[in-house]
Amino acid sequence: MKNFIRLLGVAVLCFSAAALVSCGGNNTDEGQTQMNNTYVQISAEEAKALMDSETDFVIIDARTQEEYDAGHIRGAVLIPEYEIAQRAENELPDKNQLILVYCRSGRRSKIASQALADLGYTNVREFGGIIDWEYETVK
Description:
Oxidized Rhodanese, domain 1, 5-stranded parallel β-sheet, 2 domains, alpha/beta, globular
């Protein structure tokens, strides 16, 4: 009888360990998926270098219409950060395209960049605010 109880205890222990490993594996997979939903933060200098060297990219200005009208980076597309989730898939059909995102100070561009990453965009670069942009702007 003692051997049966020990054997039963070992079986329960093995089953519990297998279940724990299995649950841990699922959490790791989910964690890895979440980790892939990110963007890369770069400097204004790095963004400018990409604009000068790359050909297939889009620049997103995540500010308001009024801010955009006051001055923006040449070629930037205005999509306010609060509209990214609704407009991105129609206006940015290639989820692997290089997307450069800025706003006024960097707060809204981070929100917009994370929203794009969460939507499955894979090549998002956030470069802060236009207040730190030392290059040409247009009105």
